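Our consortium's second objective concerns turning raw sequence data into structural hypotheses that experimental partners can test. To show how far this objective has progressed, the report includes one record in full. It was chosen at random from the queue rather than selected for favorable results. The single chain below, 123 residues long, was entered without modification.
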Amino acid sequence: TLTGKTRIVLIDDTPNYEPPDPREDSFGSRKPLHNTQIITFATPKIGKQSSNEDPLSEEAYSKVHRKAERHEKQMKNGDKERAQHEKYQLERLLDDLRGPDWLKTLGISGIIETEKKRYEPKR
């Protein structure tokens, strides 16, 4: 594992290496920009903050994420409703298959009692 105390040794194993010639800059990405100003920012000071207040407090977090949480809850409720509806439909189909008009449920009509026994295993 790398830690702050890990020692890294770099070895130059290519003493005769010569970089290739620079390619032509066809897009102009290395050209200086016209009327530009270079701004350098001060490096942030690492250490204790001036105040003990957390810049990312729970209130700031909850405001930003409230909409996403509400959407997630709506999706979860919709999934529950769909599953409940499917369960209800399957229970009703099972009750119809167990009932006296089970042939209608299978979409079979106009048969006599002897043919009815032939469809019994499919029930």
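The partners drew two points from this record. The mean pLDDT is 82. The chain is about 45% helix and 0% strand. Both points have been shared with the crystallography group to help prioritize constructs.
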